[in-house]
Specification:
There is one protein chain. The protein is α/β, with parallel strands linked by helices and about 300 residues long. The protein folds into 2 domains: about 70 residues, Chemotaxis Receptor Methyltransferase Cher, domain 1; about 190 residues, Vaccinia Virus protein VP39 (Rossmann fold, 3-Layer(aba) Sandwich), CATH 3.40.50. Helices cover about 40% and strands about 15% of the residues. The protein is built from 9 helices and 10 strands. About 35% of the residues are buried. The N terminus is likely disordered.
Length: about 300
């Protein structure tokens, strides 16, 4: 398999021309799997063994480690948060694009926002809180910001329409802050929105404009925190295509933490390949991959 050949699970190994892959023992893989699970909730199955080798061998060689055992000793001994951050940057997968799973955005714009705003206006509340959890490189968060700006129009700045976007990976958060994307990431975005909120760069990329950038607050946050430190609940939470990497107990615990920070009547959106299940789920099922906390 060369450096450009996709791995069987759809991931591409890092470029390592001229080097053979390092070997990982059963015990080394078990220790890395346990470390990643305990720190980040990511469940590395046996099928991800090749991915672990492909993603970490460059880190091991560039830092002069003799192998995975030496690397693990570094993580346990004095790696600290910086080394763990590099580990999750390598292990986590971040494939996303603008307007992904369009049905969710249509439902948000046509049903959720009109009902929510009517309710808030009736109670003379102008504080609307949205959280994009597992925001990756920012495409989903910027899409949500566009829809909010479009929905409210000139009334937008009369609302506290805060949009928080978080991810565990510092690498993708850096990309999100920059807000510059290749054309293929925008293929699903309506041209009218693209031309209004992004501009073409001299090297044929697309960059979000300052107005859009200022509407999103990007922060590093680990969804495995036992308690979420938010002072107020969210009306809308997007956490899509994140829980596919978690096992059932982790998904259940995370959905309960989401529930605790969802406002009454608020919505949780997950990926279409994900489910919370019907048993022991505190949310009400609304649509495929859309859940609601009872008013």
């Amino acid at each position: 398999m060369n450096s450009k050949t996709p791995a069987p699970d759809g991931f591409a190994f890092p470029d390592m021309p001229g080097n053979e892959s390092l070997r990982i023992s059963d015990q080394e893989f078990k220790e890395i799997r346990e470390l990643v699970y305990n720190a980040f909730g990511i469940n590395l199955t046996d099928q991800k063994r090749g991915l672990v080798v492909g993603r970490l061998q460059k880190v091991i060689r560039d830092n002069g480690f003799r192998g995975f055992t030496d690397y693990l000793a570094h993580l346990k001994r004095d790696g600290g948060q910086k080394a763990l951050a590099e580990l999750v940057n390598r292990i986590s997968t971040n494939h996303t694009f603008f307007y992904r799973e369009k049905e969710h955005f249509d439902y948000l714009a046509n049903t959720v926002l009109p009902e929510l705003v009517a309710k808030l206006k009736a109670s003379r509340d102008h504080d609307l809180r949205v959280w994009c959890a597992g925001c990756s490189s920012g495409e989903e968060a910027y899409t949500l910001a566009m829809l909010l700006l479009e929905f409210f129009g000139p009334d937008y700045h009369g609302w506290k329409a805060g949009l928080l976007a978080t991810d565990i990976s510092t690498h993708v958060l850096d990309l999100a802050h920059k807000g510059v994307y290749p054309p293929e990431r925008l293929e699903g975005l309506p041209p009218a929105l693209r031309d209004k909120y992004l501009r073409k760069t001299p090297d044929h990329q697309w960059a979000v404009n300052d107005q859009l950038r200022h509407e999103v607050t990007f922060r590093r946050f680990n969804l495995m925190e036992s308690r979420f430190p938010f002072k107020k609940p969210f009306h809308i939470i997007f956490c899509r295509n994140v829980m596919i990497y978690f096992d059932t107990p982790t998904r259940q615990a995370l959905s309960e933490r989401f529930f605790d920070v969802t406002a009454p009547g608020g919505h949780l959106f997950i990926g279409h390949s994900e489910t919370l299940g019907r048993d022991n789920c505190k949310y009400q099922y609304v649509l495929p991959a859309v859940y609601r906390r009872a008013p």
